Every structure is written in C-alpha cells, then in structure tokens.
Amino acid sequence: MRAPVKKTGRKNAAPAISVRLSDRVMLEAQADGSLDAWFDGYSTGLGNFSAAAIGRAQDLSTGLRLSSFSPDGKPVEKEIDVLVRRLARRGLVEYRLAHPADAKELVAIEPQLPDYWPRTLKPDNADVIALSRFAYLRRRGGEMVLESPRAGALFRIGDPKIASILALLATPQKISRLRRQDGFPGMEFLGLLMDCRILFKVEAEGDGFRADEGDDNLVLWDFHDLLFHARSTEGRQANPIGGLYPFAGIMPPPPAVRPSWPGKQIDMDGFLDGFNALSEPLPGIAGVLRERHSVRDFDDTRPVTLTELSRFLDGSARILSKWESPLDPEDGDSPLIDYTTRPYPSGGSSYELELYLAAANCEGLTRGFYHYDAGRHALTPIDVRPQDFDAMLTSAELAMDAPGAPQILITIAARFGRISWKYSGLAYSLILKDVGVLMQTFYMVATGMGLGGCAIGTNNIELFAKMTHIDFHVEGPVGQFAVGRALPDQP
Q1: How far apart are CA 286 and CA 118, in angstroms?
Q2: Residue 286's pLDDT is what?
Q3: Are residues 184 and 302 in the same domain?
C-alpha cells in the first residue's frame, strides 16, 4: 500500500507593512467632523473627514496595512490616504513590518525625513547585495536600531535573527543564497533597506564597495564624518536638537569659569603698566574684539544697504589672490591643485566654504536667495520656492530666539570634496574649525562697520538641498550667520 501523503500547513504569508500612530500621539474627533492630533501637550488640526473615515482612523493606534488604502481607491480609502500623509509630514506616525498572523513585528520603521514613505524596491534572486559602509547597528535604551546618515528612516530590530543576516552582508551576498539562511526576514525587508540605501547592489560578488554604492562625491566621505554632518543639524533626523537642557534634572550646571589649578599663580595684571584693560578702550583689532557681541534684534526701519553688504563681504570673504601648485613638485605627472587666499585662514588653504545669502531686508537688493561668488565679488540670484525661503528665515529666527527675521541670513556651505580629497579622518573636523574662524571674522568686520551680527548654532541640511538641488553630501550647510543694523538701544 502507498504511504499516506503528509499534509503540510499553508505557507506563511509574506510580511506586510502597516502604519500606526507614534506612541505619544492620539487622535480626537470633533463635532464638526474635523480631526485633531494631540501630542506632547499640543494639538494640530488634520482637516475634515467623513464619519466612516474617522471610524477607520481609530485603527491607526494599532496599525493599518498600507495596502488597505490608496489615493486611487474608494472614497474612504482616499480619505485615509490623505490623513496618513498629513500625519506623516508632521512626523506623527511610524511603520511596522510583520507577518499578518504574527503580533510580533520584525522591524519598526521610524521616519527621519518629513517626506519619508516606505517603498520596497524589487530585488531579484540573482542580485548581489552588500551592507553600506555608512550603516550601523547600535543599542538605544533597550532596543537595537539600524541606521545610516543616508537613510530616510531608522529601523528598530524586533527579531534578533536579523542581526545575523546583516552580519553576513558585510561581504557581498547573492540573494538566492541569503534566502536559505535561518531567520531570513523576507524580500520586503531587503527592499526597504535598499530603498534607504542601507543595502546596495554590487555588480558582481566580491567587487569593491566604496565606488559601487554612490557617486564620486560619496567616495570621498569617511563614515564618521558623514554621520556627524547628518546627526548634528536639522533636516535628516527626528531626534530633538537645540537648547533643551536635557540634564537639568540629573546634574547641576557646570560652572562658567573652571576652578583654578592649585599652585602659586603669576599675576599678569602687574605687567600692564597701569593700563586698565577692563575699562579703558583698546586700540585697533583688540578694541574690535572687546566690542564684539551678538545682536539678535535688528532695526527694520533702517535696513543694511547693498553698499554695506558689499563692504562686509569684501572685508571678510572675498578671494584676494589665486595660484596653483603641483601635489608633488618632483613628479611631472602630479596633479595641479588650485589655491586661493582670503581674509580668513583655512586648513591646508582649502577654502572649501561657500556663502549663500537670504536677503530679507536689504536696501538696494531684491528680496531673495543668492550665491556669493567670492572670485568676482558678485551675487548670483537662485530661484527658490517662497515657502522654502520663508522657512529658512523662520528657522533662523527661532534658533536665535529673536523677535523677527534677520535682515541678511548667511548660510555657510561646504564643498566637502574640496577638503576630503586631501585629508583623511579629520576632514569634517577641519571644516568646522574653518567655520568658526569665518564666523569670528564676520563678527569682527560687522563690529568694525557698526553693524550687528549673530552666529546661529544649527541649520537644516535637507531644506538647503531642496533650495539648491544639490545632494546633501556634495555641498551642504555647516553654519549660519545673521547680519543687520542693530536697534539704537542695543549696546
């Protein structure tokens, strides 16, 4: 007799992506049919929706499958699509990848960009993929998170077997072989990571990594430099940033002045020959340094003039001379390197910094966004969306804690390749040093001209990329400085 055929259970369905409200968010329906989102003690209106859509929106607390609604679906599906995208733009949702019959999620996806939307690229079994050199897995509280400064989202790892799969991808792996591994998380997961450029496709197994996963500008970046650039400013992360006093309830504030070292001190006041440095005016540059201070409130009835702006840029950032020199003078095939001199110093005479001006109120200059050509001492207008221009000024106003927007907002951007072509391991560090030197130069020139200035601690690298259409790793903001005429009652 033939042995009975053993019945097998139905194959598990592929993991599906769902969207859900972030933990701190709840929805509240109003009597007029409008829907509000409440979070951190604040609320924001989301618009009016039908009773059916509001009822279905309650499922967002646990999760709605992305495939269950669409802008091209039924009326309720269209409404849910509008609602979810409004929540997403405000950073109020996250996504999960899980098997439909399993409550345990493989990963939770936290957007880092306001316009992030999960997309699963369609890799092929024959494709060879590898882990990006910018990707990293770390502990955050009691969770493991997978991140990359190039990614639009981070991934909270729910299944520890995923970590072993990621470890395998330190070397190129063919997907067909990867699928045979225990704990393979599914093609959807690979597609999500490829969309976020945490995984990338290589041409053949064993090929080089650095040149395969990006353009020539990306090749120049070291891991720690790109990570610091993306995580120390706004635009490409969802972490809190700024003067939030995170340790106010944990430890007392450090003193403004360091406690003195023990030992006998040498009193330097005895060498001033009766000169009172704290009360008597100082000559020349020393006096300008003593007078320097930040000005956050500008007199918009007396805007800075185009003539003054020209003198300010001439004294602080104009190219004074140009020359070129071979990398190796004894090698006839050595590449020639261009150099310039400017009023401020720069590491290796790289002068990688570029200036972009948001002119909000300048007499003689049309309101708009400009690039400063330091070689020709000229301003070139850049066509940008009005809402992006206003957003840049508003962000600076908030960062300065000022009552209004600056008259001139200077964004200091870096051409990263200019300095990383030469320096390894400290390129971004040198850029930040150059920014500090340039900011001090701005302060000194503004003070000497009787203008007000204020260095700004943060900027939005994603907003700048949208305004200039330049990838954030090619040329991006590393500092901002406000210039204008101070109110008469300011010191």
Answers
A1: 56
A2: 81
A3: no
Rounded Cα–Cα distance for residues 58 and 187 (Å): 30
Structure tokens that stand for 441 in this block: 């130069």
Helix (H) or strand (E) holding 129: strand 128-131
Q: What is the largest CA-CA distance in the chain?
A: 117
Give the residue-averaged pLDDT of 358-362.
Answer: 98
pTM given for the model: 0.89
For residue 395, being part of any structural domain is answered with: yes
Q: How many other C-beta atoms lie within 10 A of the C-beta of residue 108?
A: 19
Task: Classify residue 232 as exposed, middle or buried by CB count within 10 Å of its CB (0-12, 13-18, 19+).
Answer: middle
d(CA 81, CA 484): 45
Residues 453 and 447: their CA atoms lie apart, in Å, by 8
* Domain of residue 93, residue span: 16-220
Give the per-residue pLDDT at 207: 54
Co-location of 71 and 194 in the same domain? yes
Please report which helix (H) or strand (E) contains residue 372, including its range. strand 368-373
**Terminal CA-CA length for the chain:** 104
Number of domains forming the structure of the chain: 2
Q: Is residue 326 part of a domain?
A: yes
Name the residue type at position 444: M
Closest CA to 141 of 25, 232, 23: 23
Domain boundary among 164, 190, 220: 220
pLDDT single digits (tens) 74-100: 999 999 999 999 999 999 999 999 987
